[in-house]
Design a protein that fits this description.
alpha+beta, 6-stranded mixed sheet, 12 helices
């Protein structure tokens, strides 16, 4: 896009952060898999060669799209991003045809299978699929990205280079190819071993210095020092502690089991303007969503009060603080630890994309639906705002939601409650039957 800065290797760290390592390891386990998927509806079917070229050029500008993760054979060094010497664009950029009759229902059925499929972690962690054959001559793009690469906000900036601000802009020259890097797990391990004496010495000196500074603070002001430690610990408990009993008000009332609060996890964006698009810069907070409050205005104000309070906590990034320890745990312990950190039934997220119209290979983006992961929760809700419209997509565990038509009706009624505060607006269901058969819904 002409108004989006070009992204290259500048500012992108070579090593995975502790949080990114956790997300990368999670790709191997369905319970901790955390892929991000965007589904875009196009007004027409773009030319395949032009479509493919857009992603080829983007992968030359944004190195993360050509980089894979190299894990050391033994954990003597942090995993590293390297430009894949065996990069194959045709593996990452694909095309397929949706089954008839080509409605959004059939498209979401395809994306649900792709969302649950593991990524090949020996390659760059993304794919872009052109789906042809939608009703009325339309098509769709399905962008699948590992959360280890970036978070939802970072993905918007990362893929900005595939879009245009007009349908047929002037063609531009292809950027140069990135230089591949042939680094093996054994070589990375040996590099870590060679740096080990210096790393240990630096770590010991750093730890001794930190300990001396901490001891000095305790000697000078023992009450304040201990109080600060306790305050941080209590802040962490408030941020990540259990929120409330499980529930969804309208759905549970219809089932004859009324409830009052909902344990919900919400990500908080921690990115600054100087942060690169790659990597994850967010923190999760747990809310006791007061869904038992019938008045939607009072309910929204109560939620805002909780959210404002959580954002101001000192330990808002407590998961980032403990990630260096968590990443050392075996997979079985890591899965258990992830379950204890989530402490919610529902996760909700919102991502602002592009404010104006955008085009991809000559096709206009009509709607954008975002599918989020289900990392040990019963439901994931993602709101996308793009080009003057909003879409809300829900993925859920079918063992938790057993009456899907009722859930769809309650979902729409809940949105209508909120939209009524602004006038006569009402939500519009996506263009497929309300009978949901695969655990996903969209508005």
């Amino acid at each position: 896009m002409s108004d989006v800065p070009e992204l290259d290797a500048a500012g992108l760290p070579e090593e995975l952060s502790a949080v990114d390592q956790l997300l990368h390891r999670g790709e191997a386990n369905p319970r901790t898999r955390s892929g991000i998927m965007g589904v875009e509806i196009l007004d027409t079917t773009p030319d395949w060669d032009r479509f493919r070229t857009r992603f080829d050029n983007a992968s030359r500008k944004v190195l993360r799209l050509r980089q894979k993760v190299v894990m050391p054979t033994l954990p003597t060094a942090a995993p590293r991003w390297v430009v894949d010497p065996d990069f194959n664009l045709d593996y990452h950029v694909r095309r397929m045809r949706v089954p008839g009759p080509g409605t959004l229902r059939e498209l979401l059925d395809l994306t649900e299978v792709a969302m649950q499929s593991p990524m090949d972690i020996s390659r760059p962690l993304w794919s872009a699929t052109l789906v042809e054959g939608l009703a009325d001559g339309r098509a769709a793009t399905v962008l699948h990205l590992s959360h280890a690469v970036t978070d939802g906000v970072g993905s918007v900036e990362m893929f900005a280079n595939i879009y245009d601000l007009e349908r047929d802009p002037q063609p531009t020259a292809a950027p140069p190819l990135p230089i591949p890097q042939d680094l093996s797990p054994n070589e990375l391990m040996r590099q870590g071993i060679n740096r080990l004496p210096g790393s240990i010495a630096g770590g010991v000196l750093g730890a001794l210095g930190a300990a001396a500074r901490a001891a000095g603070r305790v000697v000078r002001d023992p009450i304040s020092a201990v109080s600060a430690i306790v305050d941080y610990a209590m802040s962490g408990v408030r941020v990540m502690g259990p929120a409330a009993e499980p529930s969804l008000r309208l759905y549970h009332e219809a089932k004859g089991v009324p409830v009052h609060t909902l344990p919900m996890a919400v990500p908080v964006n921690l990115r600054s303007e100087d942060d690169p698009a790659g990597g994850n810069r967010f923190a999760g907070v747990n809310l006791a969503a007061p869904i038992g409050i019938a008045d939607p205005e009072a309910r929204i104000k109560a939620i805002r009060t909780q959210m404002t309070s959580k954002r101001e906590e000192r330990a808002i990034d407590v998961v980032g603080a403990i990630a260096p320890v968590l990443r050392l745990l075996p997979d079985t312990f890591l899965e258990s630890a992830a379950g204890s950190v989530v402490n919610s039934d529902v996760q909700a997220s919102n991502v602002a994309v592009y404010p104006g119209d955008t085009y991809l290979a000559g096709a206009k983006i009509l709607r954008h639906y975002r599918l989020g992961p289900l990392p040990g929760v019963a439901m994931m809700v993602v709101l996308i705002s793009r080009a003057g419209y909003i879409t809300v997509t829900v993925r859920y565990d079918r063992a938790a939601v057993t009456d899907e038509p009722l859930f769809a009706r309650c979902l729409q009624a809940g949105f209508d409650e909120v939209l009524a505060l602004g006038g006569d607006a009402r939500c519009t269901p996506a263009s497929f039957t309300a009978v949901l058969t695969n655990g996903s819904a969209a508005q």
